[in-house]
Design brief:
The protein contains 4 helices and 8 strands, in the order βααβββββββαα. By secondary structure, the chain is an alpha+beta fold. The strands form 2 sheets. The chain has a 4-stranded antiparallel beta sheet, with no helix packed on it. Strands 2-8-7-6 form a 4-stranded mixed beta sheet, covered by helices on one side. The longest helix has about 35 residues.
């Protein structure tokens, strides 16, 4: 059982969204600059009509992508919404075989592993997705003595409600978690 004590504030969620926004901004900007550069070269060199037309198309598409990347900076999008309401209240998070339980003075939330769709490791915290863009932030504030990589392994093995025994435990070198060979399904057993 994992026990954690921490706070999730509006600043934490804004910081997560800012990291996602910067990633997409840099990606869009890089592709736009490459497209604009190749488009300008194709228009200036003008080796044939086809290259000239393709250069103009690249200039237009690169310009649109450049505008999209600038719009991300002007009007940032929320890429992740918090599964619980951010506040300055202390949270007590318990994670065991039954799921994730979040307790705060204002609300109690129970998240079963069946609703966990993805677990992302962000080095200092985990994002446990319960929908396309709804996630629970789990900070590195474990009070029960385990580490964040152990918690990540535990959650990743149980996401979707199905326990993956090979991800949940260490393999003993025989191919299985408990010493059994996964290829032996009983059909090849001799009487």
């Amino acid at each position: 059982m994992f026990r954690l004590n921490y706070k999730i504030t509006d600043g934490d969620i804004k910081a997560v969204n800012k990291k996602f926004m910067l990633f997409y901004f840099v990606l869009y900007l890089a592709v736009a600059v490459v497209g604009l550069t190749v488009g300008v070269i194709a228009v200036v060199l003008d080796p044939s009509k086809l290259m000239f037309v393709l250069g103009i198309i690249l200039l237009v598409l690169g310009g649109i992508l450049l505008l999209c990347s600038i719009m991300l900076l002007i009007a940032p999008k929320n890429f992740v919404a918090s599964a619980i309401k951010p506040s300055d209240d202390d949270l007590t998070v318990s994670i065991d075989e039954n799921g994730i339980a979040v307790q705060s003075p204002s609300e109690d939330v129970k998240i079963p592993f069946a609703s966990v769709t993805e677990v992302r490791d962000k080095k200092q915290y985990l994002l446990v997705y319960t929908g396309k863009d709804v996630a629970l932030m789990i900070k590195n504030a474990i009070a029960s003595g385990q580490t964040l990589p152990e918690l990540n392994k535990f959650l990743s093995a149980r996401r979707g409600g199905l326990v993956n025994p090979y991800a949940a435990t260490e393999s003993d070198g025989n191919g299985g978690a408990d010493g059994e060979n996964p290829a032996d399904d009983g059909d090849n057993a001799k009487d």
